[in-house]
Amino acid sequence: RTRRNATMFGQPGHLYVYRSYGIHWCANVVCGDDGVGAAVLLRALEPIRGVADMQARRGLAEAALLCSGPGRLCQALGITGEHDGLPLDHPSFQLDPPGPPPEIVRGPRVGITRASERPWRYALRNSPFVSRPRPRA
């Protein structure tokens, strides 16, 4: 536990934001019990609202590339270290009720050196909004 990752050890339902390799912001949803370091990295999303703002922040028009990867997602949404620790019911965020259950696939994790073989990377099947390599199983 460090000052940098302290948010991840806090209450669930908060955003844990950090810089990856000192370059890209990455956003995670804290999901463990208070005092337990557990969070889920937001790797991609399908842009539905605010697409023009996302395109302006990212400097590109292709919707499939706006949020396909954790760094791209944060840049498109304007997430920075200032969002670290905010509860997900904060006015900065809008969480919608779930729609019909999508078909979920899982595959090996990427961009890590340990436990990369574990199938802990989840995605919507055949979604063009997921960064490569796309999970297939």
Commentary on this structure:
The chain has helices at residues 51-58, 63-66, 70-77; strands at residues 15-20, 24-30, 39-41, 104-107, 121-124. The N and C termini lie far apart (34 Å). 15% of the residues lie in helices and 18% in strands. The strands form two sheets. Strands 1-2-3 form a three-stranded antiparallel β-sheet. It has two domains: 1-90, 3-methyladenine DNA Glycosylase, Chain A (Roll), CATH 3.10.300.10; 102-137, no CATH class. It has three helices and five strands; from the N terminus they run E-E-E-H-H-H-E-E. With 137 residues, the chain is of the alpha+beta class.
Q: What is the chain-wise order of helices and strands? A: EEEHHHEE
Quantity of strands, as a count: 5
Q: State the secondary-structure class.
A: alpha+beta
CATH topology call of the largest domain: 3-methyladenine DNA Glycosylase, Chain A
Strand order of the largest sheet: 1-2-3
Helix percent reads: 10-25%
Radius of gyration from CA coordinates = 15 Å
The biggest sheet, with number of strands, parallel, antiparallel or mixed sense and barrel status, is:
3 strands, antiparallel
Percent in strands: 15-25%
CATH superfamily annotation of the largest domain: Methylpurine-DNA glycosylase (MPG)
CATH architecture of the largest domain: Roll
The general outline is globular
CATH class of the largest domain: Alpha Beta
Rounded average pLDDT: 88
Uncertain runs with pLDDT below 50, 5 residues or more? Answer: none
Q: Number of DSSP helices?
A: 3
